[in-house]
Amino acid sequence: MAPINQTEVSEFFLLKLTDDPTLQPVLFSLFLSIYLVTILGNLLILLAVSSDSHLHTPMFFFLSNLAFTDIWISTTTIPKMLLCIQTQNQSITYTGCLTQLYFFLFFGTLENFLLTVMAYDRYVAICHPLRYMVVMNPQLCALLSLVSLFVSCVIALLYSLMVLRLSFCTDLEISLFFCGLAQIMKIACSDTLINNIVINIVALAFCGVCISGIIASYTKIVLSVLKIPSAGGKYKAFSTCGSHLSVVSLFYGSGFGAYFSSVVSDSPRTIAVASMMYMIVPQMVNPFMYSLKNGDMMKALRKLVQRKICLL
Asked: Tell me, what's the pLDDT at 263?
C-alpha cells in the first residue's frame, strides 16, 4: 500500500470492544460506573486534604497531586471510549488522536514521577523522622512537583513529535481503545527505526530512574525498620507506607502485565484488556487504598461527610 503524508490523514479508527449489540449497553454502564467511581473517589481525596489542616503535610500534598493525575488519566481515555460505544462510531480525528496521546503520556509519566517522589517522602519520614519537616519543606515539595511536571511535559512532547514525523497507509485501524504510542507506530508505513531507538532509550532511562528510586527508598526503609526492637514499632512504621506500596505494586504490576501481553500475544483484544487494566483499575482503586489504610484520611473523610450532611 502506498503511504500517505501525515498531513493528509484525517482520522484513525479505534478498536471496537465488542460486536455483540446486547453487550454494548452492559459495557457502557460498566465503564461509566468505573469512570464515575474514579472521579468521585479522587475528588473526595482532594476535598478531604484541602479541608482538613491536619492533612497539610508533604505526604498528603503529593497524594493530592496523585489524585488529580488519576482523574485526568481516566478522563483522557474513558469518555472517548464511552462515546464510541454509544454512537457505534470508532473514528477519532488525527488531531484528536495526537492530543489524546500527548495527555495520556503526560499524565502517565507524571504518575510515575509522583510515585517515586512519594517513596522518597516515606523514606525520609521513616528513616529520618526528626528531620522530616526540615527535609520535606514546602520549597522542596514545590520544586519536586515542578520538576515532575516539566520532565513529564518534555517526554510527552518528544514522543508526540516522533509520531508527527511518521507516514501512514490506508489501513488506519488502531488495535486499542485509545491512541497508544506502540499501536500508532505499528500502523505507520514509514521507517520507525529512529522512533523505536529514541522511545526505548528515553523509556528505559526514565523507568530505570523511577523504579530504582522506589527500590532504593524501600530498601532503606526495610533496613531501618528491622532495627526497631518492638514488633509494634515495626508494624507502625510499615503501616505508614503500606498504602503507597500497594499503589506502586498495582500500578507497575498492571503496567508490566500490559507490556508483556503485547509481547507474547498477537490478539488485539487480549492486549486491549491488559491495557485497560493498566489504564483504568489503578486510578479507580488508588483512593480506596489510601483512604481505607490511612486513619488520618478516614477521619478527614468522615468530617467532610458530616459537614456536608449538616449543611443539608
From this structure: 62
